Prior knowledge:
The chain is of the alpha/beta class and about 220 residues long.
Amino acid sequence: MGAFERRHALIFAAAPETEYGYIRAFLKKHPDALIACADGGLRHARALGLHPDFMISDCDSMPEVEGAEVVRLRPEKDDTDTQGCLREVFRRGCTEATLVCATGGRIDHMLANLSLLEEAYAMGGRLTVLDRQNQIVLHEGGCQKFKMPPEYAYFSLVPLDAVLTGVSIENAKYPLRDAVVTRAGMVTISNEAIADSFSVTIREGRSLVIFSRDWTRVL
């Protein structure tokens, strides 16, 4: 049994962020979350008055380290600090994690962070990427039912593969039935649930499922 067994990890990346209302809302729902920081993510944890349970750092964007457990990395490496942080908390027993402060700033970092949704699934866990307007999860294929979070107005499917086949969407304003969806010319943006939950079937391929809200609804 790992040291973090059955705990939900809240992972702080180092992207720019000044609005922490959505993180406070998450912590109200998950008061026992394990706090993990990837390098400069420590700044965000400190801004919220949080002491990390775990930190991983190569000290390139944050010279200080803090945490009940600290893993130091070399700056010259293949993996990002955030990728390393996710891997380490999963190796220590977590199977569910939420990644915050991960979508602002550099687009290459944002896309790398979104790719961690697939890596988490490959490791047998589940990751959610969360920011003040969006909640992003992975649809790994097959039929999945999603509960529509009341704080969001829309949901979108963004293919990770060039082509998704056998796509069906039920209980939505814009339903689909056994459709082909491609990255070039997507028709699955800004849909709306017409019930508390909706279902998405993908026969072949993987997709992001993005719950979103407009600025006027931001916490």
